[in-house]
From TrEMBL:
Name of this chain's protein: Alpha-N-arabinofuranosidase
GO molecular function: alpha-L-arabinofuranosidase activity
Annotated Alpha-L-arabinofuranosidase B arabinose-binding domain residues: 373-514
Active site: 240, 319
InterPro entries: A-L-arabinofuranosidase_B_cat, ABFB, AbfB_ABD, AbfB_ABD_sf, ConA-like_dom_sf
Amino acid sequence: MPTGTPRPRRLRSAALRVLAVCATLAALLLGAGAPQAAAASSLPCDLYAAAGTPCVAAHSLVRALYASYDGPLYRVQRASDGATKDIGLLATGGYAAAAAQDAFCSGTTCVITEIYDQSARHNDLTVEGAGGAGAADVGAPADALPVTAGGHQVYGLEISAGMGYRDDSTSGVATNGAAEGMYMVTSGTHVNGACCFDYGNAETNNKDTGNGHMDAINFATECWFSPCYGQGPWVQADLENGLFQSDAGHSRNTSDTGTGPLPFVTALLKNNGQDHFALKYGNAQSGGLTTTYSGGEPTAGGYSPMHQEGAIVLGTGGDNSNGSIGSFYEGVMTAGIPTDAADNAVQADVVSVGYGAATGSTGTLNPGSEISLRATTSCCTADYVRHQKNAGVLSSVTSAGSGLNKNDATWIVRRGLADSSCLSFESRNYPGDFLRHSDFKLYRQPMDGTALFRADATFCPQTGRSGTGTSFASYNYPARYLRHYDYNLYIASDGGSEDFDSTTSWTDDVSWAVSPPWAP
């Protein structure tokens, strides 16, 4: 598609649309949300429309959210020359044509400048401007969050502090106490306690205009009203001037300890705008939804009725409080409150996507292959590169060992973030986190898009220095190699001032066996 041309939308014939909606509605009435309960051609916005609560916004970098959608999902801008390109779908109602992004951005970097609304409302999100609590944001790096979805290699949106998207002039979004629902697919492994990783309804002037002027999902470890139970992260309602887990603000549900480090989470909020809101979450890879709160609006003044203004925000608070981090794969907003049956059907559809499924390639250094890296030094041939509490370590992993150890020791090979002729290693169970060095030590950290991170997380393979296996030279310190020393991981030279630069067994310690992954 030529850059800048209007995005097309292809509608099915009226007869086909009527048949599809009727089939979906019948499934909702009969099936209570099992995967087979919805017509195979029905995607989230088809399901909500069939239940009488159509989408007024539908955003995703990953896939179509209508079975009939065939327009672009998002736009990227290239650093080398400022050129832009819309990234569309492999097929109508399908998944992102991520290879087009890879080709366009080859040899340089790209940021995401616009996320298109797939609904007829055209509520597209662009990089957020300055607000009452934050300077203008920047676009997220387009390659920061590779993921498998629907059996395809695509990208999600990874938000670091100072990034966010917004539309202050929308169509059809709830205002002044109108009812609405919304969900997003996010991640429990890329969160923090800063304000505010939100998706939903916000102020139109990028400022805090008072209680009840927002109605957005928040997902974070920030506990605004004590007590919160567990460590989070929690699905909360950002209704302005508070992240609410109940009408009292604080949690009334001692069993709601948060989702924990689930790599993919469905977060859901619905609000009638007058006297009731509800919060739900689910594992986006399996199972159904759990309701953590369903009850009255906050008892403080200004929330009953609500005073929503109808802007849409993604990645920040309503006043552009932008210290948060988070991941976003897809999300919608509806007119009216969806039924529980519709929510269940949407969750079943999300699960069917197969977020984070195996890439289908193992045991090689080809991009997309899943691997484990085994030490070849005689002391440690049963030990593997793994992450533990963010740090890179060498650890024993066995078939009888824990699933956590196996997941921590599994990496997805990616094209080098700083040089596509080299490699980067993405964590299998922390999507968007990569193995990188800092002060010569190895860590697992989320990709923030900076040139320093890209360089630190890029390694160039060569024949093992011991004559066996593979050695990985640091991209920005080419005389230093990935090494294990005293069961920690470093980039080390063959002789130097640091203990981990010791020449003793150096060639063996920097030579690795590329092995099949411990986690499937």
